[in-house]
């Protein structure tokens, strides 16, 4: 597809809300000289009748005629995003199915922590068993730069197909596993790598269709991960007593295969692939020269360092405090069910009030909930209240973090930049949960150390989001960034 280039198409788009609630591009970013881009895409200068670059700029009637002439705008310019339409919303539907199978699967890993400790891997410590789920989270996010590079070059089609195969194959092999290293390879690496190949293309494709409503669209798509986190744990816990662990994993794999058929048929990008370029490390590192990008990545890393600890240990902790097994097994599903609203509502508000602003708010409340509610609690009702509130606030991360990143990125590099973000985040996800498990061992099975570590990590992430917001949109509190 041939594209008409304008000065605005060659630079990243930093979007800030104006007083009317519409996004504007700050002066000096993506524009040449004093030229402005009108809503219909035409360009004019504020210096009437003056000479610029050897050309005399039009005045009076000539300026009016020029304003009326349609000018083609690059596909990458904010004004060219459709922000809706059948193909765009079908891509959101496909993204919903993709995140059900990828992030939704990661959201239910807490079920396996308790099950493996009580059955196949009962001779191992909680910290050792937690490496399975940590590897799942790590592998899903770590391959982001590679997947993003291929996505930017060739699009999502082959990546989605390969991801579907690896995810389903890994779960099938996990169904016949019996030893620790079996689960590490099949569930921790192969299946999770497939989930990674599913997650990033869906995230990138949906982002190409929306600009003003991007966080809202990503929130709807990301709610698929919450739905997966509700359906899959309940299904697994109900099926294991009836058909055994092996057939439970196979049935889950078939469900994921069916959902991925929907995703492969509907997820589309609005942009043509730009073709392969040499794989160079500097192509990834150059983005970290931008202070706003680097601080956003650090904020996401700190947040992820503690975010998954309640997902992994809430069931075990609740049982230790006297909650019945039948009720405790539903806590992860309750947390993920509430996070459906956490995916959508903060995203919708973020489009109106500023995405960085909402990210700061939800990250701060998440840390406060851990320290003020989960840490001192021991009864059933406080535990249930905690998982409800925590599911809502942490659910916002999946929709808001990519929206924040897209807000300061050239859409043509969205795959690589998303990949770079989540590759760094994966290190926090890999190490955070085992550190929490080691703290449980150190405190002789008590969760005090884990809870303090979790809460402090989340609050540190919220501070970093504040700094990122200042670097991106300035330090004025009332600015909607």
Automatic annotation (TrEMBL):
The keyword Secreted does not apply. It is found in: Membrane. It holds the Pfam family MFS_1. One of its GO terms (molecular function) is transmembrane transporter activity. Residues 1-12 have a biased composition (Polar residues). Residues 292-481 form the Major facilitator superfamily (MFS) profile domain. The chain crosses the membrane at residues 88-116, 128-147, 154-174, 180-203, 215-236, 248-271, 292-315, 327-346, 358-377, 383-408, 420-440, 446-468. The keyword Iron-sulfur does not apply. One of its GO terms (cellular component) is membrane. It is a multi-pass membrane protein. InterPro entries: MFS (IPR011701), MFS_dom (IPR020846), MFS_trans_sf (IPR036259), Proton-linked_MCT (IPR050327). Residues 1-55 are annotated as: Disordered. Keywords: Membrane, Transmembrane, Transmembrane helix, Transport. CDD domains: MFS_MCT_SLC16. Belongs to the major facilitator superfamily. Monocarboxylate porter (TC 2.A.1.13) family. This is MFS general substrate transporter. It comes from Choiromyces venosus 120613-1.
